[in-house]
Amino acid sequence: MYYFGYGSNLRASFVSELLPSASYVMKASLPNYEVQWREWAPEFGGGISSICETPGEIVQGVIYECTRNEIEKLDYIPGVYVPKYKRESFIVLGEDGAWHSADLYRLRELKGPYPPSRKYVEGMLEGARQLNLSPDYLEKIETWLRQSVEA
Question: Please, which residues have CB within 8 angstroms of residue 29's CB and are 6 or more apart in sequence?
């Protein structure tokens, strides 16, 4: 199955810890959504991301292929996505020009907004650079880094 990674899941090393079977498929985007910092995470000392519906915006990310069994386990592991996040299926636009169904996690309840966690955004930026996301999107992440707070 396909999994769409954005936020902390731009870093392949982080994804491989969560989903050992995950393999890179391609870069992709989710139109009419944007990343927002809508949950305070004490372990990060700042806000962590979710996607929020926002007409005209776009979330850049990556499609990974993984087993359904592995991703379903994430639905129940406390402290990973439970209880804050829920998994949902979305249609994302792959860099191949085709639309693909992919699951992703987003917050169950939107709070904040909060200033983003520096540690979180640094990991996100590292992954975005490795993936060679667009210069405009890298600049957006760098702006979040300038707005971030340190634990």
Answer: 58, 59, 60, 61, 92, 93
